[in-house]
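Q&A log
Question type: sequence-to-structure
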Amino acid sequence: QVQLIESGGGLVQAGGSLRLSCAASGRTFSTKAMGWFRQAPGKERDFVAAIIWSGGRTYYADSVKGRFTISRDNTKNTVYLQMNSLKPEDTAIYYCAASRWLGVPTRPVEYDSWGQGTQVTVSS
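Response status: OK
Response body:
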């Protein structure tokens, strides 16, 4: 089991930036990829971005391409989500997740461990 702790959420005006962090501990050696998802009230949990732990390839949802950047620090077992040019529709709870999936995991079912979530609110 991998334990994940997110931080960095908050309230920001449209056009602003936030950086989310996710620190992993526990059985991290089994992790193949890390991802970020988000869930707005009354909606499903949607894929935002993923990074393959070995090699660092990244993948993004179309809605955040060019605005969000996922990165990792192997030495700290931490993954980041830099969010720029934020829009009100980015408002959601953001979840970090760890996957043992051999591929590009973009669905919640492909992730084994989840953080508690951090609220991001973008005001217009």
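Response note: The radius of gyration is 13 Å.
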